[in-house]
Amino acid sequence: MRAIVIGAGMFGASTALQLARSGVEVTVYDHGHPGKATMAGAGIVCPWATQVEEPKWYEMYAAGARFYGDLVGYLDAQGERDLGYRKVGALVTSENRADFDAAGARIAARVKTAPEAGEVQLLSPAEAQAKFPVLKGDLPAWFLPGGARVDARLLSAAMLRAAVALGARYHSDYVTLERREDGVILRDGQGARLEADEIIVAGGAWAAQILAPLGIDHPVKPQKGQIVHLRLNGTATADWPVLLPMSSYYMLTFDDSRVVVGATRENDSGFDYRVTAAGQAEVLGAGMALCPGLAQAELIETRIGFRPAGPTIKPIFGRVPGIAGLSVANGLGAGGISIGPYAGKLLADLLTGAPAEQDLSPYAPGA
Amino acid sequence: MRAIVIGAGMFGASTALQLARSGVEVTVYDHGHPGKATMAGAGIVCPWATQVEEPKWYEMYAAGARFYGDLVGYLDAQGERDLGYRKVGALVTSENRADFDAAGARIAARVKTAPEAGEVQLLSPAEAQAKFPVLKGDLPAWFLPGGARVDARLLSAAMLRAAVALGARYHSDYVTLERREDGVILRDGQGARLEADEIIVAGGAWAAQILAPLGIDHPVKPQKGQIVHLRLNGTATADWPVLLPMSSYYMLTFDDSRVVVGATRENDSGFDYRVTAAGQAEVLGAGMALCPGLAQAELIETRIGFRPAGPTIKPIFGRVPGIAGLSVANGLGAGGISIGPYAGKLLADLLTGAPAEQDLSPYAPGA
Amino acid sequence: MRAIVIGAGMFGASTALQLARSGVEVTVYDHGHPGKATMAGAGIVCPWATQVEEPKWYEMYAAGARFYGDLVGYLDAQGERDLGYRKVGALVTSENRADFDAAGARIAARVKTAPEAGEVQLLSPAEAQAKFPVLKGDLPAWFLPGGARVDARLLSAAMLRAAVALGARYHSDYVTLERREDGVILRDGQGARLEADEIIVAGGAWAAQILAPLGIDHPVKPQKGQIVHLRLNGTATADWPVLLPMSSYYMLTFDDSRVVVGATRENDSGFDYRVTAAGQAEVLGAGMALCPGLAQAELIETRIGFRPAGPTIKPIFGRVPGIAGLSVANGLGAGGISIGPYAGKLLADLLTGAPAEQDLSPYAPGA
Amino acid sequence: MRAIVIGAGMFGASTALQLARSGVEVTVYDHGHPGKATMAGAGIVCPWATQVEEPKWYEMYAAGARFYGDLVGYLDAQGERDLGYRKVGALVTSENRADFDAAGARIAARVKTAPEAGEVQLLSPAEAQAKFPVLKGDLPAWFLPGGARVDARLLSAAMLRAAVALGARYHSDYVTLERREDGVILRDGQGARLEADEIIVAGGAWAAQILAPLGIDHPVKPQKGQIVHLRLNGTATADWPVLLPMSSYYMLTFDDSRVVVGATRENDSGFDYRVTAAGQAEVLGAGMALCPGLAQAELIETRIGFRPAGPTIKPIFGRVPGIAGLSVANGLGAGGISIGPYAGKLLADLLTGAPAEQDLSPYAPGA
């Protein structure tokens, strides 16, 4: 089987890797759009605290987190260890007491069936601050030892390399699709025709544009996020947990004294690549309000990503009805880092005819 | 009339400006692709030495250069003076005596009808070096006082601003086209429908992708160029002429001690945004061979641009047959800086029904 | 006479240029410290509204502004026009009525003897907003037609180039000074001895470090400024006046749709090169409070500069008592852009024995 | 004991860490000069092939490599794993047969007493290319399994963080020294006096400047290196060995598809921070000649570093005679990555009175 994967973000790179592991002849095309969500993605893997209650989605979210153990182990065996991945635990807190208690109740219910979350602890404000030293001093927190962080940019690159090491090919180019009587025609940026048995459109926020020529009205739109990277020079941040304050913001750290604060959620952005005065001020303000110790941190970078947001929170992936050999892999929104690797595995299983781990029909395009 | 211009490179920005000057209600969409040819374009305006002999194309090329006087004057009156434009003259030389003589003959024939070229002078090697101090010392040169240079990035931004000042709107977004029974549907990056009486696709190397959903096989492909920017700290380079060594390379300077050396011509590049080891070495090597004094210059930047190259050297612009209200503006290749502003004027005249300055039928899409 | 100028910021570059114009054999050394105040400097030339009342300093400040006409004219004649200079006028406003009235009174008194300020006008809020379209709509303003803006980075580079064109030499290196019985020894970064009749230390915030080996306790310290550059894509900003809201902040624009908002004043910063979360948020907050229309502007850059701040507002320049052939040129603080070019002229006159335009003894080192 | 370490490069950061481990109260000042050798350093740890024969220096070089095992283990235990360190082995080759044989003889003699080098293998051209796929196909190679690579930038930052975690303080600032009758006075960038029992000047190429005010003629000069970073997108390079072609060039890879090619050795550079046309072309040319497969690699960055080069190859470190409480730590030149961490340990032992692992008198300042 020859497959062409369009898009090497989290979902596409995982699909490509899992197909290659199954012996499929894979070619990956990625246009390198600067606003690719994966390249900006912060990388929290901690499903148990989410405020989203939809059960089917939560099941996918939790399974995605569980899948990380397998994936990281596999990549390590391939020599790919530069992923920014570390199981540092998660601090869940809130400035609102009722929200804090509700989070505790949610977590308690969910971890019963999730031993990988570890034993939840209630931390005093001082204990919470000891784990995340820039945090303000009056907030208790739930600590979940199983929470992890990852650098989406590094992880997707590593999955792609692992696919290439198995024989996949990779091109920095785009692909256009056209509909003909007898199927779909693919062309690369030079206009040359490409041949494939399976085409997987994993183009994220750009997928609607890629699919439009086929008459498909793909309901995924860009949701812009601005995410700020700070540095606390000289400070060892490798072991700080991810911080989830039960708002639309969050924080996590990397080994190089970096603290990441995310993110705006701009629904009507279209493709506007600009870091804006308002977006920057919003994220910095939210970060410093929760963590006054960040005021003197160095601002090293602000990243822009366009999350691929569907009409509902559920992903959209599977075969496109009525067009043989065409699949889509999209719609993960802000959940792409947690779900993407696992969803790529599910889609690869579907395309290679491997037994399904779960019923994927709710996610089918057009469903 | 409401017009939507897709693409704000040299051709699109000029079309938008000229339409706005004619009272058209213009909206410009530009996706900000990092490899836009205009953003990398070096900016030589000197038609008289070109090795291209095709008469119809040369006529357009020469008229494009003549048009600069009007354009720069107009923009100046609007307060737009930050264009990097200066009439510094051009040095035409060659390491090959026969090529040098042939260039002299071509120039002599052409400037007869081009008083704006000024009086051509034959310079001794020492005189040539006096004008371009890093040049090697054994090359005579033809000097054409009328040659000019411009910063394509600044000029296109200035034309866009001048259009906006006249009421045009500008969005950093992309537009997709779909064909329906009754015409073309446009959508922005959010999927919202846009309305226009005239659509001008000035998407450069990306135009084929934009037009494919309409079933149009637009024959323009990307030709990658890598172009190097050097700095001679402390050296006044504002008055150095452009340097045309009758090869595929060239040099020009800007006021800020910058020397620009161009460029690779990579025809099978597709959309590959990378500065490559080989491309960088090629351009630096060519530059230092001709101008040994560049060896100790600072390397400040290498730009990548995808020139929109059609099957022949001639531009492709005008109304698309069979689809009401759709025009294209493309195919200028390496000539975009010289021709783009003028071609935008011609196209705007065509769309607004102004008298044609010349017969545009050879450039019509599909011609 | 052979002079070595250490530092090519506004003060040093001007001194070098004026010495070169007087026939002095000048060599300039500049280490290229990334935090050089001149490189970050925003560039307002509008002395008449300042809240500083000290008469001697104000006289210098006003004379510095007057000097710009000569300087810009001279540079233009040398082919140096890429200075970011434009006489756009100044809008003086305040959110506080009493401060606004006081500013009006100060301006009225000062412009009597400053015809170059032009005729002051009182603008209604709507008129003020018409001149600076992102400004909030409820602030009246004084408009001074003679106010100007300049890009300090471009201007200092242009002065340096003009000096080089007159025969000066320029090295990207540092110089160390040592005291010996018989005078001062200079060495370059390689340790080689340099010879000069006159040494001018124009090292800005670094001058204390350069002079310490001579046993000189030079009282100039770094005052850190963080300054934000925004872009209003597509908007023609070339003619917007500078905006002086009678606070520690200010705004000005450049031709390329850029709006500059300055600046923090961090007195205990030492040499801390970091853009900080707090500094960024402070400047953005101040800018958006005054100009709500900046919220959707693109954040393109934040610059750091260390202003050389002396113990009082007055500059420190002239010959160092007791050490033959050593001068300093420093202490301009936030006034470096207005005063620097003129002060360089005064110092060059002093060193070449030209008649003094004013009594410089109040500025003498050690005075 | 209170120690102040000036400079946080490889040598300074290691000294700070080892002092902190011994209970010393350490403060580190680093001015963040952009050309710090450590920040550009490529990171080869493979002493056994060096063409340098000086026995005393070789002993230090070999011991430095051995020390890496301890250091990496210690840092790992502190949670610091983001070092770019990996024991990938080393390929030693040469285009010259005699040089190749001589290298083999040197290696054979040296590894007898260096079990950590692993078992040396002679590889055929095909085998060598299999390990380093972009290498040309006609070169046999010696393979030393014990060779390693490290990212000097990450390692020095990690050592600094580990010191801070033990209580050390870190300031992004510079320090000036002055001599007084009764000793040395230190001041920070604000001019405030600092107190310390031990001052360690680890300022690399800048140390001569720091020490000059004390009347010390420190014989270390900057040797400029330009080093090129390429990327082979999609290629797994994590396990490629370092490549030592017995010239002044070398190559190594990092996990993120990066290939580093080093470096120019510019002895008369002074502090010239510029990437030059000639330097860039030289390194790219050398890299592509040996490894044709790099031609299509992406050029992602060129780094500049000023190696601190003494009059001979031997390091200069220890107490400064005649000035109580002052030490220097410098002169490692191109060997800083191999030797720096170990030399920091030796110096810390000396200052804390721990037993000496070897006789340090040959390295003493002034020796």
From TrEMBL, chains A, B, C, D:
<dbReference type="InterPro" id="IPR006076">
    <property type="entry name" value="FAD-dep_OxRdtase"/>
</dbReference>
<feature type="domain" description="FAD dependent oxidoreductase">
    <location>
        <begin position="3"/>
        <end position="350"/>
    </location>
</feature>
<dbReference type="GO" id="GO:0005737">
    <property type="term" value="C:cytoplasm"/>
</dbReference>
<protein>
    <submittedName>
        <fullName>FAD dependent oxidoreductase</fullName>
        <ecNumber>1.4.99.1</ecNumber>
    </submittedName>
</protein>
<keyword id="KW-0285">Flavoprotein</keyword>
<dbReference type="GO" id="GO:0016491">
    <property type="term" value="F:oxidoreductase activity"/>
</dbReference>
<dbReference type="InterPro" id="IPR036188">
    <property type="entry name" value="FAD/NAD-bd_sf"/>
</dbReference>
<comment type="similarity">
    <text>Belongs to the DadA oxidoreductase family.</text>
</comment>
<dbReference type="Pfam" id="PF01266">
    <property type="entry name" value="DAO"/>
</dbReference>
<keyword id="KW-0614">Plasmid</keyword>
<keyword id="KW-0560">Oxidoreductase</keyword>
